[in-house]
Each structure stands twice: as structure tokens, then as C-alpha cells.
Write a structure and sequence with these properties.
Chain lengths: 124, 692
Amino acid sequence: MKLLTHNFLTSNIIKGVTKGYPLQIMAEKVDVKEVEFNPDFVTKMLPKIDWSALIKAAKDVGHGDGLPEAVIENPESNEEFLKAAHNALMQVEVIEGKLVCPESQREFPINNGIPNMLLNEDEV
Amino acid sequence: MAAPMEEQETSKKSRRKLLKKILRSQQTVLKRDGIETNNLCTKILCVINGGLDVGVSHDEISTIFSSHGDMEDIVMLPRKPYCFVCFAREHDAEVAMEKLNGTELPPTDHRGNPVTLYITYVSKVPQSLSPSNEFPPGLILIPDFVTEDYAGRLLSAIIWEDSANSAEQRSLKHRQVRHYGYEFKYGINDVDINDPLPNGIPPVCNDLLSDVKLKGIVNYIPDQLTVNKYEPGQGIPPHVDTPAAFEDGIMSLSLGSQVLMDFRHPDGRHLTVLLPPRSLMIMTGESRYLWSHGITPRKSDIVRMESGNLNVVKRDVRISFTFRKIIPPQERLSRILPTFNDKTSESDRDLDQEVTDLEKLEKEHVHQVYEEIADHFSGTRHTPWPRIVDFLNSQPPGALMADIGCGNGKYLGVNPSMYQIGSDRSSNLATICRDRQFQVFVGDVMTIPLKTSSMDVSICIAVIHHLSNQERRLKAIEELVRILRPGGKCLIYVWAMEQEVNKVKSKYLKEKKFEKSDSGSISSTVDCTINKNSVNVSMDGNIVKSDCMGDTDCSLISANGSETWTENDPKCNGDSEINVVRKGPSYSGGIDSSLSDTSTCKEDDCSKEMSCIKLAVHKNRTEFRQQDLLVPWERKSKSDSDKNNTSKCVFHRYYHVFMKGELEALCGKVRGCKVIGGYYDQGNWAVILEKL
């Protein structure tokens, strides 16, 4: 699971949970896989993502260094920033661990890089 | 002088012999179309090679035959190599037969070669041309429902204005209509409840309507009337009255001419019902929701007389009064439309129990099956469907896309300029996606764990038909819309009940057909026969050559309709018409109806604890006969050591196949989105939604 994917995941599908975002990551195994840097793609992602959730996720998995607390001005012209964002969004992958709902503490396992977001019947 | 006469006689005799021989060779083909021929003279002639499929026109036949007697009508059927010529008197038919049998027509623009007409008397015409012996289920026909006098008063109450085109009266392409109460708007196939017409249903109809209610034919008073006026030769295309818009029980009073009405089931069954003058027809249940009805434009109808002989009855002007009761739009959301199985409804009970069982059904017959067959399933799904690829490639770079129910991820790599996240309920299928380096999570389409308004695009291909009631299917679409940003688009595909639309079959079916069809100019008559027996095909359009084809290690039957079915392997041929009978509440009347309307069930017929779930197992290579069914997926494996030792696993997947318009109607119930496109694609219905 890339952190870009994580940025869109929520647990507010659980009955009664209103703020299931961002999901806390408790990682047991994290990989960094090289992905071709595409500054245009990263620039396009920035308005679509929740930056503070990305920062928190990156810190959760120990890859938060070098990321500013907020998106900088004119990010498209700052390659250093874009590369840091690229790394966090596209290269860092959680392989084993779990996601935790910030409201209900419900845990969702991550195995082989795949989060299991299925709910039990009584949680729907 | 004697010699030439004899010669002439001999050549005449040998010519007759030859014609008889040729006709005999055509008998089987004609029989297959439901045509019976006769040596005795009848009023109706079948003219072989005088049909549209051979490139012969109505005008040509008319020119040739009209000079030989009082011709009533010529009936040309689409894609048939023959036509029927109907005469007023048997004698005229006899003369035409004598003179014209063996006539050669020269080549024209429409046909490259000359054709020879072979003529025979007919004692039975194809089912589509004369009244059937049975009615579609739910259809009620009451002859002589009104008196001549009352019919006259009804007709005089309708004022037809010359060349009017208003909300009240429209001239359609093939007929004239007048509306009362509300205008039926053909653009939307619905009425606008906020835009009533100044004139309600004419008071002269009150006697009829109260009579109908009194007799318990329907339990409401209609509020919308459409009067149709058909000149001879006019008709109405096949249609189903908008299910969500009008109550069950649509009534139509026929005045003036008789007419044959065509009823067609999505599985290809075709029944024709003769509507005599002053009869009242009421379409209820299956005949109202499942069968389409229409009138083929013709100038006459062929009916069987009491003597058993066929007779041609000319059509005159026919005026029909169609009464409908509008369902208020605010009520439509909560209505769940009935669905129909082949078996008549006997229904259901305890709601909670029911829901639990539906979940169990999906769990056993969808989730577990995909988990089991994941590898095998994935191995048969390589090629993305072209129209879905087009949709994905039309999205801009950097778009966020969620593929909910992504299977083995065959759409996740289509447009790599997007960021694509897949989701499937099967962890085995998710693992296959992961191995292919795709982003994927395990999740349910009814609870998508993605942020509201976060995605630019969502797709859901061949998923929603696995959900076992309308509420659940609706919930899935709501979720697909919820995750979209405003302006975001969603593409949904479901398997269609109709596996042949506008006479167009998939490429796969066509290939099969040609393998089996007879050769010669008359081969097109084979269509319907072969089609009846052919595979329902298609979910995965790409299919035909699965990895398993011709390989003894495994063979698939049916599957998503798509996979291989091996023509010559008896093991693959349908032995699957069995019922799954399990303990639990019954929903043999259709799962949806059982949930929606417990009041209609006969409480004493079923006990709460012990009733049966009956879902027919789909028989491979047949059309669908019901909307809710189990489709077998068969996996055979032969051990290397012993070739006779074949183990066979059959998995049954639950499906609810969609009728035409059903998917759009469902999407119409989802707030905050609009349907911006819809189409039929190789046995599937598709819609494109846009979030508002």
C-alpha cells in the first residue's frame, strides 16, 4: 500500500463512526521501491490529497524526514519538494502491519501490501 | 397435332415433378419456422425465394401476384427468404399458384443473381403471424367488455383535431395519440406529475372504470389515459411501460379493428395475442413488467377460423384506450419493482431472516466461489473490453480512479497516466492484482472505504449483478457515487437478461451459428433454432479462446457466460437444470418482490422455519428464463496417472441479470448524480453516471 492510496482510505464506513480519517498506520514492514519520478504527476496529485494526513502517515512509517508541514508555494517549480513528495506518495509502501480507525480503534490488517477493509455484519 | 400436345404435357409433368422435388427439400426448413404446407388449396401461399433475405421486394411480389386475383395482403418477414401472399378467395390463390410457380425473377440492384419462385399452399403460418395458443403470464383478456353502443359513445367523446401537435394530441411516426389527465412524454417515457393537462379522463369513461374496479380487475381508478389511433398498416414498436412510473395492471380497450399484439420475453419467446374489437386487455405481473408488447405494422392479420382453415382479416382503423395509474414520484424511491422467476410467486416471510439468508447466499454463491476459482477465473480474463478501455483512456492524466470489484485487475493497467486503486472482496483476486504491482485493497462495494468526493472516476464492472436484492444494488451505486468528486464519472456494467438485442448477437454466437447452419440461400432460417440452443455468452466478451479450450486438463462451462463450452464434450453439456433447495425462507417469487411486499404472500403456504430457497441453475447455452439464478462454473482436472479419473468441481455463482432499463431506473433512484450515458455491450448493460 502506497501512502498515496492510504491518503484516500477511511473507516467511516463503520456504523457510528463519523470521522474515520486519517487511518493511523502501525507498520511492521515497510519497503521503498523506486518509481520513476514524474513531476507533472506529483503536481497534479497535490490538490487532490490531504497533505497533513500524508505527513502523519509518512511519520507513522518512519519516512517523514524532509517533508514540510504544509505544501509550499509554487510547488511545481521546486524539484526538491516534488521529489520528497514523490518519495512519500509513490515509493514508500507498507507491506505488513495494520490500519487503525482514529475514532473506534478498529484495526484493519495489512498483509502482503493489501489492506483488508472488510467489515463484519454487525459493523455495517 | 397430337404429338406436340403430348410433348407439352410431358414437359409440364416433368416441370411439376421438379418443382415438387425442390419444395420437398425445403420442407424441413419451413417446418423449423413453424410453417406447414398443404397440397390442398388454401387462400395463403408461401412464396419461397420471394422474401427479403433473397433481395426480393414487396413491390415486386405485389406486381407479379396482383394480376392473378383479388390479393388481400403480402406478408414479408425480416431476414426470411420467403413471403406469404394472401388472397381473398381460394380460387384466386389456385390460379396464381398455377401460373406463377417456377417464375424466374431477373437480377436487380439488391440481388446479383436471378431467383426462382417456388410456391406452395400454407395451412400453418409462423407463430408470429397468427394468434398463439397461450398468453404471457399475467395477461388478462376480456372479450366484449363494452357494448357497441357504449363503444360508440367512447369514440365520439374523443375529438381528433386536424394536424394538431400539442400536449393533448401528437402525431407520432406511425400513429396518432391523444392524452388525458397527463401527457405521456415519449422523450422520457414518463409523465410530468407537475404538469397536468387541462382535461382529465373524459367522464364517459367513468362507467367503464368503476366497472373494472368493482370487478376487482384493478384496485385503483386510473388517472392517465392515452388514446391511440392506428390506421391499417400502422403499429407500435415493442416496449414495456415504464415500470417505475405506473402501477401494475395497465388496461387497454380495443375499439374498431381487431389487431394482433406481439409479446416478447427477454429469452426470445414470442407470443401473439388477438385483440378483438371491444375487448379489454389488462397487463399484470410478468406480462406487464417482463414481456414487451408491440404491434407489427401490417394491413391484415392471419387468424384461424373455427373450421381450422386460415383466414386473412384486413385491419381497419383501430382506436385503443390505455388507462394507467401514475405512481407519484415521491413514492417511486421506496417502491421495489417486482422481478419474476419462471415459477409463479408464492413468496416469503420474516424479513430479518430473509436478509440474513441473502447475505448467506452472496457469501456462499459469490464470495466463496470467487475465492475458490480466483486463479482459474483470472486465467480466463486477459483482454479488457474495448468500450471500457475507451472510457478509461478518455480520462485526463493524473485522474484518480477506483475500480471496485476489480477481479484480477485487468482494467488497472489500461491507462497508466491515472492513479488507479483496485478493490475486490476476494483476497485471492486482490493478491493477483498485488502481484501485478497494482494498488489494491480488500473491500465491499456496499461499504467502500474511500473518502467521500475523493475520486475522479469510479468503475464497477460485472459486480452489482452479484448482489441479491435491489436495496443492496442501490446501496452499491450510492457508494460508487459517494466517493466521486462533483463532476466525477462512474461507469457500471452488469450482465443483461437479454442476450440478443435488435437481432444482433455477439461475434462468438455468430461464429457458432455458421458452424452449424445449413448451406444455401435459405440458411438464415436457422437463426432462431440455433440461437435457442446457444450459449448465453459474453460477460467477458474476450473469451472465446480461453486457455482451457481444447485442453483436456480443464474446461469451463458457461462461467460469466463468457468462457468456453466445448461443443462435443458431453460432460460440458447442460446437465445443470437442477434446483438448489435449502432450508430457509422462500423467495421463489423473486428475491426483490419477497422483500418488498410481504402483503401479497399467502401466509399459510409456508412455515416460517422451514421453507425452500429455490434458485434454478442456469442451463448452459440457453437464454435466461429468470432474473435471479445460479450460473455454474465447472472445473475439471484429470490426474496424470489415470486418465479415466476425472475430478470435477462445479461452483455456482449467484446472479441477478438486469432487464433493459433496469440499471438506469436503479441509478435514477440515487441522489446527487445523473445518468449521462447508457448502452448495450455484448450481453451487458452499461451506464455512465456523473456526480452533481
